[in-house]
Design goal:
heterotrimer, A mainly alpha, B mainly alpha, C mainly alpha, B: mainly alpha, Four Helix Bundle (Hemerythrin (Met), subunit A), 6 helices, 73% helix, elongated, C: mainly alpha, Cytochrome C Oxidase, Chain A, 17 helices
């Protein structure tokens, strides 16, 4: 089975990108972006996750099944978060006292 | 009509239940990925609890978060990123069958992992001294709702604690890998354990990639 | 017939001897039997708790046990039956044994992890058993906070740890099955040629790996709160017990599909074999299994209609709950269509399959009742709900489990069970079950709350009927224990394919050799293809 072996250069560039993003997210946290702060922080975290997953975990060279498994996991986490929040964010929407 | 594949003598690279080494490697890799998905859901429960409480108690969470040392947190994040780099270099070395490089990079990964844990211990100790550990002696300055701030720290300790436990397991795995690699067990033809341990290590790093902003960087722009 | 010749043939049972060969086995078949022994013990334990509960409920004033003890009884009944019997049952016994054989493999992908799974169940069970013997736990199997975290003075930690450990048994089994099905199918065995039993276990395994970890982390949080007093769910700190319920039910609703999907897989095999006909709408049934697994994750809030959850979320969860009924109903229609113009024979496994179809349908339909917000407000926490889930889990899952045990017993042991006694006990179980649980629908509708051991006088008749039914049911369960054990020594020898069934497991001797097949089979036809199957007469004497 042939394996794609990435170069040291590739890995080094990814590491640098990750370090830069870490610095960015830290510094941006001190800037007042209002509601947008958490969005930016999460977006940067997602970018870092993608870099680690695609390059360090070799997802970009992986089989379709592996990619499906990764997406499935993230989707299920989203289901847990979204449906749970669907309760807490809609309290008081329907005019029943306390609910 | 039956195929030729039958029970055969067992080796590490070809266990008796598999027909080819490629099949075994595929199965091992898929198995590790599915395990990582279970870990996503495992940590996901805590992330859900965090999200619910942060929404409800955003002010207290912001104050509590600002009591964490952001410089140390950022440095620790970098340490872990370096460890992911050395880990993938170890995997690369195993793909090339470079025994001494495998050992070198695994040892470096172990060192970085150890550094992370050491810094974490220091941070936890600091929280203990500042009375930010949940319990009867908890007290946080500048927050009206002590309970809400305490919830932040309950989640802080639970999440970083769970993460640290996974790091410890990772350190154990690395130690075992170093021992095996040193004995020359990994070659370009058989490096699956290094590969899948690498997946585990990177995953633990990804968890921290999210823990850092969620715990350390809440509304840092607000005046103290 | 040459008994000596049979005993000379090497099979997975006689290939090695001694305790170590069992306790350190990597053979999926032996591990299946280890699970069989373990869960049978837990079934007895859970049944013991049920017995005391039903005796207590004979009289309106209680009196046999105190309220505190009663709380412990129903808690431990639920914990034992759900986590240590039902969740493992079909996958760990029949799935472990037959999944590799059905796909033409020599074992699962990870045999050592399979053994670890069994040890985790045992260790988890020992923790829970310790808790029960040391004084019990009284939180209900749902261990809602803040009672479980703050106020209960019972063995919550030990029980929770037991469930936590057993949860990993479930996760690892699911992981093993998924990888096995993806990577170890025999040549020619495409996804749509697999038996529906395999599809059902694939879907179950998806639930196990995606849902159980959330229960595990919820237990961790409860333990942190109880042991270290760090309040996550403590209202005094602003903690939210409803958050606990979301996290708990995110797993525990899909958990019921972990319990029923394998049962449906068994029923597909039984209905096909005993009507000697391919399952009608094979692909639809396969997709329905996966659909149940997926949809099952979107409905958990229907356990929380009266918890304080928002009305909007309640409506959303109610709406989604109706969808999950659809694939289940589709399966019932497909089994029925399979029976039509089939060549039906009435051996014991088929009796259980019929029992399943009828009782699961009743249980499932009553699920629609409780899925309706308006009705649920009235029947939640009443015996209506208790009857609903017992119809599915006992009338459904346990019947399918027994049907599968009978069906595959000859393959696992090389022996036939006595058909007359088996048919009798199937009938006794069916009658006992309905007498136990049908009155409970009425009780619940009339307002009898669950988890109460005292009640108004006017409910007594129905309770007495239920308890009478339970004693019949107990007899029904006892008989197979006896004749299965008897059959190991005295049962008629079973041939390779006593039922004339299709499927790769019926093409290898009974009991199978260690590695299942001498050479890996090559599959050239669909599942349930009877054109090439030759059945055998069962040899008596």
């Amino acid at each position: 089975m042939s394996e794609h072996i990435d170069s040291i250069r590739t890995y080094t560039l990814v590491l640098l990108a990750l370090l830069v993003l870490t610095a960015v997210t830290t510094l941006v946290a001190f800037v007042d972006l209002g509601e947008f702060s958490v969005v930016v922080a999460l977006a940067i975290a997602v970018c870092k996750m993608l870099l680690v997953a695609l390059f360090f975990m070799h997802v970009r060279h992986s089989t379709k099944l592996t990619k499906l498994v990764v997406l499935g996991g993230l989707l299920w986490l989203a289901i847990l978060l979204m449906l749970t929040l669907s309760d807490f964010t809609t309290r008081g929407w329907i005019g029943v006292p306390g609910r | 009509m039956a195929s030729e594949a039958q029970a055969h003598a067992e080796t590490a690279a070809l266990r008796v239940q598999f027909d080819t080494e490629a099949q075994q490697k595929d199965a091992s890799t898929l198995g590790m990925w599915i395990f990582l998905i279970t870990e996503v859901m495992f940590f996901g429960g805590m992330f859900t609890a965090y999200t619910v409480y942060r929404r409800a108690y955003s002010d207290a969470f912001a104050v509590a978060s600002s009591s964490l040392n952001v410089t140390i947190g950022a440095i620790n994040t970098a340490v872990l990123l370096f460890s992911s780099f050395t880990m993938v270099m170890a995997v690369r070395a195993s793909q090339l069958g470079q025994r001494r490089m495998i050992v070198l990079f695994l040892v470096l990964t172990l060192i970085f992992g150890g550094m992370f844990l050491g810094v974490k211990a220091y941070e936890w100790n600091e929280k203990f001294e500042q009375h930010h550990v949940p319990g009867p002696s908890f007290h946080m300055e500048g927050v009206a709702q002590q309970g809400h701030a305490q919830l932040f720290f309950s989640l802080y300790f639970a999440m970083t604690g769970l993460h640290a436990a996974h790091m410890v397991i990772g350190v154990g795995l690395l130690s075992w890998l170093i021992w095996m690699a040193n004995k020359g067990k990994f070659t370009a033809e058989y490096n699956t354990p290094v590969d899948i341990a690498g997946l585990y290590w990177h995953f633990v790093d990804v968890i921290w990639i999210f823990l850092f902003p969620l715990l350390y960087l809440i509304d840092r722009h607000l005046p103290k | 017939m040459n008994t000596a010749a049979i005993h000379e043939r090497e099979d997975y049972l006689n290939v090695s001897h001694g305790l170590k060969s069992w306790l350190l086995t990597k053979d999926h078949k032996r591990i299946g039997l280890l699970y069989l022994a373990t869960i049978t013990l837990f079934f007895f334990l859970g049944g013991l708790f049920a017995t005391v509960i039903r005796i207590e409920l004979l009289t309106p004033g209680g009196g046999l046990v105190s309220s505190e003890t009663y709380n412990k009884l129903f808690t431990m009944h639920g914990v034992t039956m759900i986590f240590f019997f039902l969740i493992p049952s079909i996958p760990a016994v029949l799935g472990n044994f037959f999944l590799p054989m059905m796909i033409g493999a020599r074992d699962l992908a990870f045999p050592r992890i399979n053994l670890i799974s069994w040890y985790l169940l045992v260790i988890g069970g020992l923790f829970a058993l310790f808790a029960m013997l040391a004084g019990g736990v009284d939180t209900g199997w749902t261990f809602y906070t803040p009672y479980s975290t703050t106020y209960s003075n019972t063995w919550v930690i030990a029980t929770a740890l037991g469930i936590f450990v057993a949860g990993f048994s479930s996760i690892l089994t699911g992981l093993n099955f998924i990888v096995t099905i993806h990577t170890m199918r025999a040549p020619g065995l495409t996804w749509f040629r697999m038996p529906l039993f395999v599809w059902a276990h694939y879907a179950t395994s998806l639930i196990q790996v995606l849902g159980t970890p959330v229960l595990a982390v919820t237990i961790v949080l409860v333990l942190c709160e109880r042991v270290f007093h760090i309040g996550i769910f403590d209202p005094a700190l602003g903690g939210d017990p409803v958050l606990f319920q979301h996290l708990f039910w995110f797993y525990s609703h899909p958990a019921v599909y972990i319990m029923i999907l394998p049962a449906m897989g068994v029923v597909s095999e039984l209905v096909s074999t005993f009507s000697r006909k391919a399952i009608f709408g094979y692909r639809v049934v396969a997709f329905s299994s996966v659909a149940i697994a997926v949809l099952g994750f979107l409905v958990w809030g229907h356990h929380m209609f009266v918890s304080g959850q928002s009305v909007f979320a309640g409506m959303a969860f109610s709406f989604l709950s109706y969808f999950v009924a659809i694939p289940s109903a589709i399966k019932v229609f497909n089994w029925t269509a399979t029976l039509y113009k089939g060549s039906i024979s009435w051996e014991t496994p088929m009796l259980y399959a019929f029992g399943f179809i009828g009782l699961f349908t009743i249980g499932g339909l009553t699920g629609l009742f409780v899925a309706a917000l308006g009705i649920d407000v009235h029947v939640t926490d009443t015996y209506f709900v208790v009857a609903h889930f017992h119809y599915i889990m006992v009338g459904g899952a346990i019947m399918a489990y027994l049907g599968g045990l009978h069906y595959w017993w000859p393959k696992m042991t090389g022996r036939m069970y006595p058909e007359g006694w088996a048919k009798l006990s199937a009938l006794v179980i069916f009658l006992g079950f309905n007498l136990t649980f049908f009155p409970q629908f009425i009780l619940g509708y009339l307002g009898m709350p669950r988890r109460y051991h005292t009640y108004p006088e006017e409910f007594q008749v129905l309770h007495v009927l239920s308890t009478a039914g339970a004693s019949v049911l107990a007899v029904g369960y006892a008989i197979p224990m006896i004749y299965f054990a008897w059959s190991l020594k005295y049962g008629a020898m079973a041939g390779t394919n006593p039922w004339g069934a299709s499927g790769l497991e019926w093409k290898t001797p009974s009991p199978p050799p260690l590695h299942n097949f001498d050479t890996t089979p090559v599959v050239t036809h669909d599942a349930y293809d009877y054109s090439t199957v030759v059945g055998e007469a069962v040899e008596i004497g």
